Amino acid sequence: MSSTTAQSQGTGKSHPNDKSTFDVKKFVIDLASGGTAAAVSKTAVAPIERVKLLLQVQHASKTIEADKRYKGIIDVFKRVPAEQGFASFWRGNLANVIRYFPTQALNFAFKDTYKKIFVAGYDKDKDFWKFFGGNLMSGGAAGATSLCFVYPLDFARTRLAVDVGKGATREFNGLIDCLVKVVKSDGPVGLYRGFMVSVQGIIVYRAAYFGLFDTIKMMVSTDKKKLNFFVAWMIAQVCSFA
Q: Can you say where the Solcar repeats lie in this chain (predicted)?
């Protein structure tokens, strides 16, 4: 046994040339499964998301006059298809799907990377609080890093969803048109308006979600085998409502 190998085993750290430090197959699986599931689910609930956004921003929107504001959920569901067309319920959905795919994929990918920084070396039984804290930090850091890449899409999605025009009266004609017009009027920094508020929220949310998920998963799992789908799904639901 060489001194390098002995030192590596003695410290419990992997050798720099250890290929297991980055699992390409796992990365691709996370990218495909997480992104596809997110795209399907977001498309299914897109009408509800747009109704929510319209009710949230209508009092601050310059495109919605005071006498034309929506009175409630039912009013939005009645007027949107009548005034803008039924397909307008999915306005901004393309940006949301494109945004959500890399968001989910990058969250899981970056989380594993950050776990090697914050969690490596801590035993879940002997160093529980350090292990738990490391999971929280890796989740929060993953969420913040991912948001840096996809926030312009999140911003565009909101702007498109609250555009209540029809035909020539629309402020934006699509995702690309929205991004181009915002950059022309406000510069690239315009695509990151509201970023500081959003990143604080995503750090807290992802820290809680991934931190709890990974910690509970390790506590429930009694061997090195992967949890079955149902158990993993149940843990994810508990973390989502926590």
A: 25-117, 130-219
Q: What is the pLDDT of residues 178-196, one digit of tens each?
A: 999 999 999 999 999 999 9
User: What six digits make up the tokens of 3?
Assistant: 């001194």
Give how far Cα 205 sits from Cα of 6, 41, 114, 224, Å: 41, 19, 16, 28
Q: Which fold has domain 22-241?
A: Mitochondrial carrier fold (1.50.40)
DSSP the chain: --HHHHHHHHHTPPPTT-GGGS-HHHHHHHHHHHHHHHHHHHHHTHHHHHHHHHHHHTTT-SSS-GGG---SHHHHHHHHHHHH-GGGGGTTHHHHHHHHHHHHHHHHHHHHHHHHHHTTT--TTTSHHHHHHHHHHHHHHHHHHHHHHHHHHHHHHHHHHT----GGG-S-SSHHHHHHHHHHHH-GGGGGTTHHHHHHHHHHHHHHHHHHHHHHHHHH--SSSPPPHHHHHHHHHHHHH-
The residue among 118, 131, 115 whose CA lies nearest residue 23 is: 115
User: pTM for this one?
Assistant: 0.71
CA separation for the pair 48, 89 (Å, rounded): 8
Read off the pLDDT band of 236 (50, 70, 90): low
**Domain locations in the chain?**
22-241
- The string of pLDDT tens digits covering residues 123-148 is 776 777 888 888 889 889 988 999 99
Mean pLDDT, rounded, for 205-212: 81
HSE value, Cβ hemisphere, 13 Å, CA-based, for 109: 22
